């Protein structure tokens, strides 16, 4: 996590953020030489453009970053990051006539643009560094960037180095960093502690399944985050085809997201009691793998008919959610790379979520709009409940027909939370192609919006 702001210094290069329609007015206040240089280089203020201007001695005296038009900005986010990646080495001080909230988002985007996944190969660092802009909380922005980078690192790491024990080690490292408490239930102890679904899904793998339980904070409202930690998903006996298995190192993206969010919460010192539950497993194939048409009994006592072993994420989440609900926290939030249906519905860029609480929805969507972290509400549509009731068991883990797959998965999870406010996020956790501030690969979704809205959500 090397994304830090540059130290303020007199040597910082002024960087002017200029919208297309503001360029003529800005040029009116510049010298003839500057106007000539800008015109000769073809700088128009288009989104993502970057231009450096030399002084008489040839050294950089200022730089320009294009801010485009209002309509162009609506088509993306982290607009400054695109220009920042094109600037030469140096420390830059932002000059921008935009609101402080907008400066904060653009500063965060700059830090996120500097992310490199360099565990296995050397990566060239981004040359330009930013001095924290005036009027923003630099420590707060840094904490958000660090949380996002933690999420990205965890998702990007292949299952060979990010199995259940490695995910546990990452959680322990985070706990040590913030003085949190952590306990882990592993292997057959899951059965002794009445976590049978987590054990069943993970028992076929060489690396034992486990439940990671991290707690932090002693005052304030109680928040429990539950993250799906399927470190690799073969599909089990309903084996995935090769093309569908290619990205399954990211099937622990929910766990990565809640750990990133936990860092944001702890690093910014939020006044709440945090609990993070991560069922960490591999869905593998061996002689003791669970089978289609098995009927399993969950921690809550609900029975589940297995009609597809590739619908394993909701099983491990079910036990963790039941455990979370027993504590009756003020809010439970689950995050999981759960269904392909969610991707078909909204694509990779939006984080679909489920909540019946209008106050939760209003707070989250307001924060999402101002923190460049888009979400999309999906319905807990109760009339679809019969689709998850197979008749010979309480629940069906994979209803036939394929309709409303992300909704039926969310309804399945909701059955395990009866005493606490509950919201569920069916995230993708992956950036398919590079975009400003978002390298191709693992990515956090909805965590910044949640962090910004938790104070309101928990204030009820």
Automatic annotation (TrEMBL):
UniProt key word Manganese: yes
Pfam families the UniProt entry points to: Peptidase_M17, Peptidase_M17_N_1
All residue ranges annotated as the Cytosol aminopeptidase domain in the record: 308-315
Keywords in alphabetical order: Aminopeptidase, Hydrolase, Manganese, Protease
Any GO molecular function: metalloaminopeptidase activity
InterPro entries per record: Leucine_aapep/pepB, Macro_dom-like, Peptidase_M17_C, Peptidase_M17_N_1
GO terms classed as biological process: proteolysis
Gene3D superfamilies named among the record's database cross-references: Leucine Aminopeptidase, subunit E, domain 1, Zn peptidases
A GO cellular component annotation in the UniProt record: cytoplasm
EC number: 3.4.11.1
Domain of life of the native organism: Bacteria
Family of the protein in this entry: Belongs to the peptidase M17 family.
Annotated PANTHER family: LEUCINE AMINOPEPTIDASE-RELATED (PTHR11963), PEPTIDASE B (PTHR11963:SF20)
Protein name: Cytosol aminopeptidase
Organism of this sequence: Sulfitobacter pontiacus
Gene name linked to the record: pepA_1
